[in-house]
Structure formats: C-alpha cells, structure tokens
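note to self: dont lose this again. the chain is below, predicted strucutre after it. 395 aa total, dont forget to put it in the shared folder this time
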Amino acid sequence: MKRILIPLLLTLQSLPCFSQTRQIDSLKSLLSDLQKDSIQIELLENISTEYLAIDKDQAVDYALQALDLAYKKGSPRQIAAANIQAGMVYTSIRYSEKAMQYLREAISISEKNYKKELAQAYTQVGSVFYEDENYPLASDYFSKSLAIYLSLDDKQGIASGWNNVGEIHRLKGEYEKALDCYSKSLDINLQRNYNRGISVNYSNMGEIYLDQKNYPLALEYFGKQMFHSKKSGDKIYITTSYMNLGEFYLKTSDPAKAIENFKEALRIANSISAENYQKEAYRGLSDAYVMQNNYKDAFESFRHFSAIRDSLQHAERMRSASDLRMRFESEKKEITSEKLEEKKKVQNLESSFSRLVIFTFIVVIVLSGALLLSLARIKKLRQKLFELPKKSVHP
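---
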C-alpha cells in the first residue's frame, strides 16, 4: 500500500484552515473580490488544490483557468507555477503524459532563474513516476528536488523532500532509512507548526510500525496523526486518520473498534462527497463485519464498495475517452497543419524551381544572343580584312 507523499501545495499560508467546502467557499469569495491578476492566479491554483480530494474535474478546471490567466497576464515565474499546478492535478487523475507535458514546460521556464519552482517541478515529476511505479526515476527526481531545497534553505521544501525520499526507502524495504527521513521531515514540520505535514509524517511512520507488527508504536503514531489532523481542521486528513485506526484494529483483530473508526471515516467522507474515501471505508467495514461473522452487513458494505468503485472506474473511462478524443482532434489538427505546411513548402519549391527555370532560360537566351552577336562581329571583321588592297612586295 502506498503511503502519503507531501507535494508542495500552492496554498496561501495566511488563510485559516477550514474544512474543504468552507475553504473552497472562502477562496472563491476572495477570488470575486480581488482584481489583481497575480493574486487571482494564486487563488485559482489554491481552489484547484482544495478540489483535488473531492472533485477531480473541478480541480482540473481551476488549474487550467490559472494557467490560462498566467499566460495572458502573469510573469514567467507565475507561468511556471501554473504549469506545476496543472501537472499536479493531471498526476492525481493518472494522466501521466499530460502531466509531464506541463511539468516539462515548467522545468524549461524555471531551470535558469527560478530554483524554487524548478524544485517544485522536480517534486511533481517524481510524483508522476511514483504513481506509475517507476521508483528509480521517482527517487532521482525527489533527490534532485531535495538537493535544491537544501541549497535554498527552504524549510517547507526540505520537509516535503525528506518525506518523499523516505517513501522510496520504504518501498525498497529500507525501513530504518525511511523512518530517519520521515523524522527529519517531522522535525521541520513541528518547528513550523504545519499540522497537515505533521499528520502525514505520523501516518507514514505509524504504517511502517504497523507493517513491522510493532502495534504499540503504530497506535501511538496514529493517535498523534489524529490529533494534528483535527488541529488542521482538514476533513480529508481527519478521514485518513480514522481509516488508519480502522486498519490498525483490523490487523489487531478488534473488529468492533475497526467498525467504529470506519463508520466515522465514512460519515466525514459522505459530508464532503469524497468518493475514494467512501469506497475504502466501505471496504474496511465489509472486512470487519466478516471478522464478526456478520455476513449480511458485510455483503451490504461490499455492495456499496463495489458500486462506488464501478462508478469511479466508469468516470475514469469517460475521462480517458474524452482525453483521447481531445488528443485525437489535437493530433488531427497538427497533422492537417503539417500537411498544409508541407504542401506550402512543395508549392514554394515548385515556384522556386519555376523561377529558376525561367531565369536560366533568360540567361541562356541572353548568352546565346551575346554569342551570336559576337560571331556576327567576327564575321564582319573578317570580311573587311579580305577587302583590304594587297600591297606589292619588291626585292
């Protein structure tokens, strides 16, 4: 099971932490009140980020609005940041090719003058490879990103980088190295009082202890995760905390407590229409009911799990079909454009060749005329020479 990465979310640190819906409403209210383009771009990116967990289509829409405004009225740095945001949302919907398109553009803009944005782009490229399970390349880009943040002494970036490098160590089974990286990230997040980051760190560390069957430490860290998730006020993080506790009680054969936590996770997920979390909560409930030999409720929970899973898969297929249509139309336009360009090139070549033939013909005629004129003059000169009176020669 994959742990949680800490992407560098483009959030306004001055805003208070609300639940997802209230945060989005607050950001939209600010968006309608503010006229400055640079702030509008950042607000659109923030709204996109807040939608990531609850409505992927809206997340994409607001990311593209930010990108469009950045290209029209933003600075190169803002264009780079907007491309990173677009790359992040397309990574979240598993459209790696599109994500990489935006991230390559961000890297191209950033690599000379904007080191922080370059590090952010590398983090997101690492996330693309992570989602595609290309862990060696994910490791390369997470490490490159961390190196830049260390050189800039960017605390938020360093915390993100250590967490993500730790995740690669975990996947390689290097648990002590992973825990060391998570701890470095945690120290910085605690200093900054960044509750979302602290929650992620405790979650990742707790899950390693759960894998190692170190149940006392796992429970301790999941408890700390819950504490900081509630302090953040972020319903997605709180839901994740309840999910982790549910998984803990499943593994420790306490189905009653598992059900209690999965139901709470489901309640919060329902309140924000977070379908992925609803799905996983129902799966956990089904497993817990099976442990209690309560097959009726287990079947009912599994039915809900299957329905949401199928709905999400259908939405993903529809999105993929839409993306394929858009890609086809785009490629068709490119091919048509290329054909027109090629036709124009051929016409230009034909025109150039025709001009060359005409020019050559004219040159030949001119040279031929000049040659004929020269020959006529020579002939006339010879005739004059023959007509001259011959002189007598005396001894």
